[in-house]
Amino acid sequence: MAAGAIDYSELIKEDQVHARVYYDDAIFRDEMDRIFSRNWVYVGHESEVAEPGEFAGRWMGLQPVILVRDRNRRLHLLLNRCRHRSNTVCQLERGNAAGGFRCAYHGWTYAASGELIGMPYPVGYAPGDFRKEDYGLIEVALDSYRGFLFGHLNPDGRTLREHLGAATRLLDQALDLAPDGELVLRSGILKHKYRANWKMTMENVLDAYHPPILHQSAFHLDSGKSFNWDSIYGPGGNARTRDLGDGHGQIDFTAQNRKSGGFFFQGLRGDVPVEAQRAYVEGLERRLGKERAAQVLGDSDPHFSVFPNFNYLPPGQVRLIRPVSVDETHIYYFPALLKGAPDEINRERVRRNGYMHGPAGLVAPDDIDVYERNQDALRARKDEWLLLRRGIRTEQREADGSRVGMAFEETTQRGIWRHYRSLMASPPAGSAEP
Amino acid sequence: MDFREVEQFIFREARLMDEHRYDEWLALWTEDGLYWVPCGRDDADPEREVSIVYDRMPQLANRIQRLRTGKAFAEDPPSRLCRVVSNIEVEAASEGEITAHSSFVLGDLRKHREVQWYGRSIHRLRRVDGGLRIACKKVMLLNNDEALPNLAFLI
Question: Which of B66, B73, B74 sits opposite A221 (nearest CB)?
Fold first, then answer.
């Protein structure tokens, strides 16, 4: 290990993690390199840029990128940086670049494909000094899993499918709920920020210990007051936490969903007219057959996370986590609509996104406040270990290698940290440039 | 239509929100009231695009019920709020309803941290039993396309 390098095996133990991983700026810089520049990172969904020229301004770690569809409908992920003197060529988070991206500074213009198509006074370059085809916007590796787009700044041969691993099954589960087998993310983005480390939310979304406690004000509204939440989250409860490997994880509500005939966490029953529910089920049956449709409905929307920056929560919310600094994070929430489902169902999915999990939702703000309380408490510097020991002796290994614990145990968080340690301990090979 | 009455109603609504007087604020609404804070852009279609808030009365009642539990931790301790509402324009609308446009600046102080909020509101008011009630309130935040900190109080 190089002098001054951080020994991550000293900071991350199987049963506890040192507070420094949340507040040390040197560790944050390491993460931007070893995690966000050397792995598949979620950047968006194909449906967001469905039309030629449509783009979405995004980030991979701290690096600004543009997800864009060119005139030939091909998708590109481009660094948002003019090749001349370094200037952002795209100022917006969404729009249409049918006319190309033009740098304001000296007017260099790039097609939506990234190709450099023009500049003022090209005669400034002596013959042979400059070839336009060498100076397109830098293209980042991009791959799709059934519409979900991930980028990789330093492709190393590991495919997106290998990266997603067991999470592909859960993406399939979310997609299977759409009568047309596709999800559509064109219904706006709720954007939320907090003053704490990005890993707080990656851990929280797989923490099934906190919901009935932190979120009791939402759980015990009139609609849920009479429900026995312990039957899901408690010691006799039917929810499980699953470490899927590679830092991915799931809170598995399948047993509860099946018990309640599906729809449990979609919560759609009372809010969608019966005819629309019937039309929806018929649509699913047309594509999947009666038996498989019943199974898909029973399993319902999954709750899972793909390391390092993608979450999916029922009903129909995709989250993209954007680290901004060691103690600032943005979360983008996208309603994921079921293609081919009746409008009433999709409208309810859209409404519930804001109602539950936006900056003014009934659930997410309490999580956000807790992350900031976490970060404040990290300033207390005695015995700085955060515990990860719940269920460590009782978790089970499944045949596929995943580990399973009770809702109130810490199986999923241990999975995140085990993977984190393996990524951070590996010395970077070469530069971080793509 | 009495401009003064409308202005006083909007000022009173602002004070009830500042002071977290949830039940009195809820009583200002009509039974079919709609409380809408668009997300991303002011003219989004709330049926097809996600909103920061898009509540009819059952959802609004839940929102208030949650805040009153004392277990809504994002508001524990509660934000101290002070808003200035200005630029009020009143126009008559159809079927005896009144539309009022206004702007606000809101200081939000919680745990030693101050956040400034800015926005414009459109109230659609209706006369019920002699008094004014809110049939629809749309709040267009200046930063509704930015990443927002918690907005767990009434805006």
Answer: B66
